[in-house]
What does this fold into?
Amino acid sequence: MSTVLLVRHGLTALTGKLLLGWTPGVGLDERGRAQARAVAARLAGVPLDAVVSSPLDRCAETAAHIAATRPEGVPPLEVQLDDRLGECHYGDWTGQELATLVKDPLWKVVQAHPSAVTFPGPEGEALRDTQARGVAAVRDWNTRLGKDATWVACSHGDVIRAIVADALGMHLDMYHRITVDPCSVTVIRYEERRPFALRLNDLGGAVDDLLPRPKEQGQQQAGGANGQVAGSRPAQADPADDDAASDSIVGGGAGVVPQV
It folds into this structure.
């Protein structure tokens, strides 16, 4: 199983005012840098195999904080850039004020049927293509890093929502139901049979459930067949039970219960 931590970039001075898209040279503002430092501190104890980022400045800066904030004695990671995690190409909408765009007839289509939208202009992209490249990037990095990898993908709101919609089996037309705040952490674990959403738009708190468990004396798990939590493998799984290991727990289970 591979686990990807989808992190949205921190705030910029223009976030929420303009549709930035691929506008170059827009980095984090003071608030965004504080958010990036905070999320990096939260994830400092999580062993990461890679930090991959959209090439846009606001994401690359956020990713750099995460890559540099590693446990004592662990060298910083190198941020690897992947264009497929870049923001949607909004075409002629890029750089325009959101207050202006809401008056465009296309806005209603974006809200109701995003799967049908191709943004105007020669560089405009279809949202379904944004989703396809984002999902392909995650799947490719899962394969490249190995089935037990845990890694960060730093990207943008619409891209992360599209990836989550795919993982949840949702039609792209419903992806607006997913919220992705600046520097939030969304965690998807990809098993053989299906992905599991472990966290959505997480903005604070402990991340102990993302840490590797001790091999001998670890956490006692409750609530399902063989005591496993949905999306996790039993401590001593038979290789022949690979399919069952990725089953969901009927009834939801009791989660991870600390051993006392």
User: Anything to note?
Assistant: Residues 127-145 form the longest helix (19 residues). DSSP finds seven helices and eight strands in the chain.
